[in-house]
Design brief:
It is globular and about 60 Å long. The protein starts with 5 loop residues before the first strand and ends with a strand. The protein has a six-stranded parallel β-sheet. It has a five-stranded parallel β-sheet with strand order 2-1-3-4-5, with helices on both faces. It is of the alpha/beta class. Helices cover about 35% and strands about 25% of the residues. α9 links the parallel β10 and β11. The mean pLDDT is about 95. The protein folds into three domains: about 120 residues, Rossmann fold; about 230 residues, tm_1862 like domain (pyruvate-formate lyase- activating enzyme, Alpha-Beta Horseshoe), CATH 3.80.30; about 60 residues, Beta Barrel (OB fold (Dihydrolipoamide Acetyltransferase, E2P)). Iron/sulfur cluster binds next to α5. The site of iron/sulfur cluster has 9 residues, from α5.
Length: about 425
């Protein structure tokens, strides 16, 4: 048993990886193992890697190489690598990095705990040691993905879609609430498919209603997939005070030829109909999406169709990424990565420039309005906050003068918005809000 050893876990990549890391740390701590916040204080280093796109792969490899150097110098006694990159490339990495003591995939928690000399305790699998600020947490409702998007290797890294049963998730959420979490962010690779693998029908609305019955102040939905999206969820969102009027729904593109080549399983018309019905059902909703530019064969005309759609539909929040030609994806073997890098970047710039104007206009509407915010950070009299329309780590920030108000991270308050830019709101705290 390695009880007297200190362990550092570096969690890279997405929020789903963060949840995996939090569960691993909690299980290890149940076995008396001790984690430290800095690699320099650790005997053992574990790296939870990301393998989504080239930049993420490079970051993961750089971190492994840095730790491998420490291992070679004897500064650490063991180095373990887990997660998506390891799931895809364990054989290649093993050959190139003998300093790594062992490689694990994305669902090897029991093996990792056993290797650390402990025993997995299934009755505590709903418990987590949070890596996020204590007032918000991610709730991962399913593992893997059963979609076949041509540009994505995640199904290869994380396996097919596996929903966590509703009762298990409610238990996990309750334990997070008891820990003091106030904002629950519901995530998966694709939340729209939740439940279909269990009984052939969507269970997302049922889950959402049960989560909403718990005393969270905010519950937020992220990573919805446009096809089979259960619209009844939008009605529940409108009816329930503690469900944020917010939905993250990546659509990636709008041109029919490209959507078909991407194997998104949905057409331009169906996408627009879905998004419009969502807005009709909940007029206060804020929609976030993600786009990809420079997909193989994307013509100027097809890109301009996307640009026009962004101009007309006016998403509230939008991220855009250049297409990345990734091994282990179906398009990698079938299409050439024939849009030059500069052209991809240029198209990202055009979309984000357009979106900046849209976001500026939207934020202007909030000036001289009062709005509820959650404080993420406080520095002197300045509070860095978010509204219900802003997810952690990706959306707008609201920067407030707290004056004499004695508020801290995790507190809610009502703010008066006095000024804004494309991605920030500025104002003053009016009244604290107890929760
Ligand atoms: S929905 Fe598509 S893009 Fe998202 S994880 Fe699944 S295959 Fe990848």
């Amino acid at each position: 048993m390695l009880r007297n050893r200190s362990i550092f876990l570096l969690s890279l990549g997405c929020s789903k990886n963060t949840v995996d890391s939090e569960k691993l740390i909690s299980q290890a701590e149940k076995n008396g193992l001790h984690f430290v916040e800095h690699a320099d204080d650790a005997d053992i280093v574990i790296i939870n890697t990301c393998g989504f796109i080239a930049d993420a792969k490079t970051e993961s490899i750089d971190e492994i190489l840095a730790a491998a150097e420490k291992r070679k110098q004897g500064e650490i006694t063991a180095l373990y690598v887990m997660g998506c990159l390891s799931a895809l490339y364990a054989r290649e990495l093993r050959a190139e990095l003998p300093e790594v003591d062992r490689f694990f995939g994305t669902s090897d928690m029991e093996e990792i705990i056993a290797m650390l000399g402990g025993t997995l305790s299934p009755q505590h699998l709903h418990e987590r040691t949070l890596l996020t600020p204590p007032h918000y947490a991610w709730l991962k409702i399913a593992e893997g993905c059963s979609r076949t998007c041509s540009f994505c290797a995640i199904p290869k890294m994380r396996g097919k879609y596996t929903s966590e049963p509703v009762e298990t998730l409610v238990k996990e959420a309750r334990s997070l609430r008891e820990k003091g979490v106030k904002e629950l962010n519901v995530i998966a690779q694709d939340i729209s498919y939740y439940g279909y693998d269990l009984n052939g029908s969507s269970q997302l609305n049922d889950l959402l209603q049960q989560l909403s019955d718990l005393d969270f102040h905010w519950i937020r939905l992220l990573y919805a997939y446009p096809q089979n999206f259960p619209l009844e969820v939008i009605d529940t969102m409108r009816e329930r005070q503690n469900i944020c009027n917010y939905l993250d729904i990546p659509i990636q593109h709008i041109n029919d030829r490209i959507l078909a080549s991407m194997k998104r399983g949905i057409s331009k018309d169906e996408t627009i109909r879905l998004l419009e019905s969502i807005r009709d059902r909940n007029p206060d909703i804020r929609l976030r999406t993600t786009m990809i530019t420079g997909y193989p064969g994307e013509t100027r005309a097809e890109f301009e169709e996307l640009l026009e759609f962004v101009r007309d539909f006016r998403f509230d929040r939008l991220g855009c990424f250049p297409y990345s030609h990734e091994e282990h994806t179906s398009v990698y073997a079938t299409l050439e990565d024939n849009v030059e890098k500069e052209k991809k970047q240029e198209r990202v710039r055009e979309i984000m420039e357009l979106q900046e104007g849209i976001s500026r206009d939207n934020n202007k509407q909030l000036e001289r309005q009062t709005i509820e915010v959650l404080i993420d950070e406080a520095d002197g009299q300045t509070a860095y906050c978010r509204t219900q329309y802003d997810a952690p780590e990706v959306d707008n920030e609201c920067i407030l003068n707290m004056g004499e108000a004695d508020l801290k991270p995790g507190d809610f308050c009502i703010a008066m918005i006095e000024d804004s830019t494309a991605y920030e709101l500025y104002g003053t705290v009016l009244v604290p809000r107890n929760h």
